[in-house]
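Example 3.2
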Amino acid sequence: MGVVYREKSAPFAVFESIAEYNTAYPDAQMPHLGEAQPRLRSFTCAASGLWDDLTVSGYKYTLTFLPGGGPGSEGEGVVVATRWGNPPVLLLARRIPLRWAWEVVTKAWPTTLDSAARLLNVTSRDR
């Protein structure tokens, strides 16, 4: 399964494939490229992507807000970062109210993955 890191200010997990992520989080599936991507809410920071300062890959990522989270979690889901829908999948926040997460991200306008993860994990504790 994915490798969990606790670097910088917020924990995150890295999945090497979409299938690996989907096995770990079957209630919040990440569609494979071309399946349902356009219907998912995503944040790209002015269409340029967020710099990967978590794994320091040198790439830019997009945040995707995936609904689901199991029974009794209506409106909750996970926030992942991908390279425009391609692996790896970085899990930044789980079991989080997606409407709230969207509002926090779009208000703060993060430009890096660490700042997005920090926003979603630190601020969610204060809800």
